[in-house]
Amino acid sequence: MKSTCLRSVVVAALLLTTGMAIAADSGASAQKGKLAFDAAHYPSANTSQQLYDELDYQRAVQAYIWAQPLVGLGAMAEGARRIGIRPMELFVFDKLEQVNQTLQTGNDDVVYSFSYFNLQDSGPLVIEIPQGNQYGVVLDAWQRPIEDVGRIGPDEGKGGKYVIVPPGYRGDLPEQGYIVRQSPTNRGVLFLRAVRGPGDSVESAAEQLTHANLYPYASRSAPPPLQMRRMGSADYDGVTPKGLDYFTLLAERIHAEPGEERDRMMLGMLATLGIERGKPFAPDARLRAILQRASETGRMMVANLEFNPRRPRRVMFKGTQWRLPTGLISYTQERGPLTDVDERAALFRFGFAMHKFLNPDAKPIVGKGAAYATTYRDARGAFLDGARTYRLHVPANAPVLDYWSASAYDAENFSFINTEQRRPSLSSLKALKHNPDGSTDLYFGPKAPEGMQSNWIKTVPGNGFFLLFRLYSPTEAFYTGKWQLGDVTEIVR
Fold this sequence. Notes:
- Helices cover 25% and strands 22% of the residues.
- With 493 residues, it is of the alpha+beta class.
- The chain has a 6-stranded mixed sheet with strand order 6-5-9-3-1-11. The chain has a 4-stranded mixed sheet with strand order 8-7-4-10, with no helix packed on it.
């Protein structure tokens, strides 16, 4: 009798952790909406179904968190496909990224370009990087850097040819003249930024990218011309999808990849949700409702991992709210024997792409590369509120060779604040008012302070926002801490 009671208590305690009510039912059936094991410790039909619903929901939420980098990059490729961009076609934001061209924490001061590829179709892929002031990376499907390219890559900005090899490839490869790297996934992306310095035009930066190219290694003796599309002001949507669309895109990406040893357990769980390589994803009404709810929960959980990280982020400027945008300790997304699931989810909800040169333990590259700092909070520690007005004081002699910028993003979608102003960033490349000592005051709020329209980004009352401060080609003064950026402070009217 004591043993029976003890087992019942244990079962009840375990089920209560899921937030479900447990009914102490001595009969063989349970009331609808309640969970019950009968006197012989078997679940009623109703309890059995509810337990499966809960199991599927819990697995779907964890799958959402696990898959964030895979789905995030998939969303960018899918956004390109929807507007007719083909694999290995380089699409260039030649008028700078605009508010209707949505990416997570995009940049409207450098000329972005992307090209998506599938090594299963192309075989080994040649990527030609032109000479010049480009910063780029070749990413695998999980947004792990296969290799940095451009000024922070092996070609060091002098230009070079890379060969990206599919997983498991055993064919012939060049012994010289190419930088050869193997990808662990079939799908990936080339991401290139043409960086402008003071006085450089947007068109001159965009023109540099016309000298890039992508083509199968098998075509190396007679390379085809670059396929390139200039985006101008055309619409583009590359942000992480919501609801059932998240899992539909996840299923598509799972079908495209062979899978890795580290992911066997999660792939097994996904199979119980109807997401399995080689099989169609066709959820019924019950599972669709569960996945919709799991997507809403997962989206909030991943955002919370970014807004309130459990592992403290590195402070970028002494005594301030400015933090390093990631808590990953390695661009591999691994932490010793562990995959850093939470931190990688937070990073790739926040933005896209990781570089080898941004590895936290990498030696700083003085005078090239970039440094990033982000803040969600003002000097008091309160979240930034679109109904309030704030000031950011940027001291004189910012430690950069290229430029600095402050960009404002919507806290819901992590993309540019979108108002009729259509100006999401302020930077040293723009026409700003400066103080007599060379410093600059930037403003964020619903209305511009009098006479400071050029230094102001409009925010939306009722919407939270956050800031990302970029320093391109940071100098020694940044790394030694000689130059410090202060907190964002509220202006009380």
